[in-house]
Design brief:
By secondary structure, this protein is an alpha+beta fold. The chain has 2 domains: about 60 residues, Ribosomal protein L9, N-terminal domain (Ribosomal Protein L9, domain 1, 3-Layer(aba) Sandwich); about 70 residues, Ribosomal protein L9, C-terminal domain (Ribosomal Protein L9, domain 2), CATH 3.10.430. Helices cover about 35% and strands about 35% of the residues. It contains 3 helices and 9 strands, in the order E-E-H-E-H-E-E-H-E-E-E-E. The strands form 3 sheets. A 4-stranded mixed beta sheet has the order 4-9-8-6. A 3-stranded antiparallel beta sheet has the order 2-1-3. Strands 5-7 form a two-stranded antiparallel ribbon. Strand 8 and strand 9 form a beta hairpin. It starts with a strand and ends with a strand.
Length: about 150
Amino acid sequence: MKVIMIKDHPRLGLEGTVVEVADGHARNYLLPRGWAQPATAEHLRRFEENRVRKERLEARKLETARRTADKLGELSLTITAAAGDEDRLYGSVTAADVAEALRSEGFEIEKSQVKLEEPIKRLGIYTIRVEPAPDTGAEVKVWIVKE
């Protein structure tokens, strides 16, 4: 029986491939678990439409992320934090703090998109990489100042 793989399968193939499998394997395993669909003309047409729709959506998301990265490159943030002697912070400034500051500036950024190697523990000026999408990013200048 020919089936269209709906999900990636380690042995049979990637999503979208048409493979030939035993009838029993398709009926009893692949189809009930949602791994595949029978390779009928209607299913092939519908799958191709969905693939094109997904590609368009991904292209739009990537373009939005690139525009966001361009705007981020021009941005300079100021974060206030409590500090003691020798400009040491009482706590630290984390990726979540930077993401929150970016959200307050109008950017939709999650903390996982802020690439901070370790929390900031001193006052100063830092350059932090922010990646709104894979392969797109910008360097944001962050000023950590005393409250």
